[in-house]
Amino acid sequence: MKKVHLPQKICLVCKKPYSWRKKWEKNWENVKYCSEKCSRNKKKQA
Fold first, then answer.
1. pLDDT value of position 43
2. Which domain holds residue 14?
């Protein structure tokens, strides 16, 4: 599958779009952050 056809979400911290990844396959509904860095900085979101 090409990357343009993958589902996307917007990161709650940095507000940038990110695409589905194989490692999130079973947990995609619960993924809220694009990276570990954003996950750690979730307290800083406005």
1. 77
2. 3-44
Are the C-beta atoms of 45 and 13 separated by less than 8 Å?
A: yes
Task: Please enumerate in sequence order all residues whose Cβ is within 8 A of that of 46, keeping only pairs 6 or more positions apart, or say none.
Answer: none
Nearest by Cα to 15 from 43, 37, 45: 45
pTM of the model: 0.76
Q: Hey, is 40 helix, strand or coil?
A: helix
To 10 degrees, the CA torsion angle through 2, 9, 13, 41?
A: -70
The CA-atom distances, in angstroms, between 42 and each of 5, 8, 12 are 28, 19, 8
Domain count across the chain: 1
